[in-house]
Specification:
single chain; about 325 residues; alpha/beta; Rossmann fold; CBS domain Like; 2 domains; 13 helices; about 25% strand; disordered C terminus; binds adenosine-5'-triphosphate; binds magnesium ion
Amino acid sequence: MSKEAIKFERVSKTFPKAAKPSVNETSLVVPQGSFVTILGASGCGKTTLLKMVNRIIEPSSGTISVFGKDIRSTPVTELRQSIGYVIQQVGLFPHLTIEQNIATVPNILGWDRQKTAERIDYLMDLVHLPENYKKMYPRQLSGGQQQRVGIARAMAGDPAILLMDEPFGAIDAITRTKLQDDFKQIQRELGKTVLFVTHDVEEAMKLGDRMIVMNEGSIQQYDTPLAIMSGPSNDFVSRLIQSDDLFQRLHLMKAADHMIELPDGLVPDSVPRVGVDENLKAILQLLLQSNAPYVAVLDGDQGLAGRVTLEQLKLGNGR
Ligand SMILES: Nc1ncnc2c1ncn2[C@@H]1O[C@H](COP(=O)(O)OP(=O)(O)OP(=O)(O)O)[C@@H](O)[C@H]1O
Ligand SMILES: [Mg+2]
């Protein structure tokens, strides 16, 4: 039996003057070493749920325990040192260098210089940041690099638990994929327990061993991504998951396999051109961006070979 890293027992949070609770009678267990993602629309209570674990927000009722201990029985500062916290805006101290940022918790803990320096080297290597970044300031780094520093800083005190609130939300798709892959590997290697908020279905499914689907302050389903995909507990979950399923399928389909005949006459220059190997997800995005009714498919030196229309991509989608 794995240990319970985080446990919620009938936890509610109603903000002052709010008409209804932001988190409603929620019970859940996050096993030690697991990566749990929380998925839900904006305003459903994800951040509120997360912030109650390190007591940035106090519950209105119910009990939260960390490794079997009621979090109210530990001084707040001590609790927060034992739980890493990463947010979207990173929150690095702008006037401190990268190494000083990472050393925040070690300094609070009063580590000596040698131990702190070793920890910084270890962490920078872990999150794949080159050594020469140590003396730089956050503004000299890209968003993705800053987020790596944010992760390193959160892990500096070697916390068993990491809370992450849309940490990769503001980062471009390519950098984001790399960060996701790297972080998942770090999590596995070090056996950290992660509670990770996102509103991106793909991210929730890719990263989570288990996934919580939330709506209006309540957990709709809490299971493995595959189990949720194959057996959504209600219409809300089903709708949320299906839309992603479609995208996944589109991603795997190629223009060459789905193109139809070109219209008579010339194809206007305003129509985007794609190669036969382009996937339908990218094509859909292109169509939505360009506002064109179709894309023309180019077959190498053969020239225009066919087209894929917005209408085709809408079919089977049901929307
Ligand atoms: N400090 C606060 N005071 C009053 N109401 C709040 C406060 N924080 C959150 N709320 C309300 O609680 C509800 C849930 O907010 P929360 O920030 O948890 O949502 P979320 O799921 O994280 O959304 P998002 O995806 O947009 O970040 C919202 O209706 C919000 O307005
Ligand atoms: Mg939020």
